[in-house]
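During the reporting period the student researcher (J.K.) took over the structure-prediction task from the postdoctoral fellow and processed the backlog of single-chain submissions. One of the processed entries is reproduced below for the supervisory committee.
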Amino acid sequence: MNKKESETLELKKSTSELKEAIISISSILNKHQKGKVYFGIRNDGAVIGQRVSEQTIRDISKSISDHIEPKIYPKINLVVLQEKDCIFVQFQGTNVPYYAYGRTYMRVGDEDKKLSAKEIENLILQKNKDKLVWDNQVNEKFSLDDISKDKLKSYVEDASLKYTSKNEVLEKLELIKDGILTNASIVLFGVVPSKYFSLLNLRCATFLGENKASTPLDMTDFNGDIFELMIRAENYILQHINVGMRLEGLYRVDVPEINKDAFREAIINAFCHRDYSIPQEINIAVFNNRVEILNPGSLYEGLTINDILSKKISKRRNSLIANIFHRVHLVEKWGTGIEKINSLEPTVIFDSFLGFFSTTFKRNNVVSKTVEKTVDMSDQKSRQKSDQKIIELISQNPKITISELMQNLNFSASGVKKIIKQLKEKGKLKRIGSDKGGHWEVV
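J.K. obtained the following structure tokens:
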């Protein structure tokens, strides 16, 4: 089968084209960090052969060493193709950018494109991107004593991993490099993360009106690791919005006016994708018509909300933190968070501006009006089961209190009283004696 040139394969008819081959090697390295070159094959794939001696191989090796910087050490061998001698060169290297004869090239298809000064600068920045990312940076001030063993063990259990030691677990999670802890290790599992990152916290507030100029009803700041702060954020929203309920059989199910899975996903996104290099808290503001979640750091590397929703594209600013979240199923590697939020709460508004990203949920205040009506909304079968359960509990303990019935049934006080009233009206239940000293009797 004829070989065909590609982004990682270059064909040369003979060593008379050695200079061009060296340019191609540097070009391929800059694009893919590894590739192959054959001498003795035309660019149309036809094998024509090449005179090969030990000196030929030494000359190729020396020329590559002399004219490519940084230096690489390729494998150069004599191969026989279609009964003809050819030279096969394999090479690899990650020390991008590579220069050939003092110039830099990039492989595009089967051609070598000379790079401009700006393109070379971007290549260098791309190479060092991981080193510049905040969660990946190390700090010699950190020590293993700064890491909570209990937090690490709890996480390892949730991630279905085995706990051995702090150091081994952190290495497995890529949170320690050459014995030095990363920033991510402290904000995820630090005993006191605020010891090093005092502003990487959570600030929450509730306002009476529709803007921050209105009367503040509550202002609370929270400190802790990322996992603690996400729980704090979720609980704060639940405590400051309306929560109704519905009955599913005998059980009461809370129904927040904003879908809980939607705002929980928004909280996870805020902590996963925020820019931790900005010393600014994540903010949660509850107004009478909406809830806003604001995190420092606009969308990463020019990404737009339309790219995420329509093209299903995502880019991760904090790959270490994202991987830690993924191991315990807090995020998907496909980056479907915003799409999921949008499907659960179609009126949600996303915005990226001035170095910040916000998620705004409209409050559906009507939910709170359903609280006292939920028993009536249950179907006849559920009512019959509820009646029977109360009769069974009273039969077992005639002096059982309303509070105890509420706990056993997971019903509201008004729900229990309404069922008892109906049972009394039906003649199935009656009260003997006073409310305090009396007891129930099943008829």
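The committee noted the following: Confidence is low (pLDDT under 50) at residues 366-379.
J.K. will present the remaining backlog at the next meeting.
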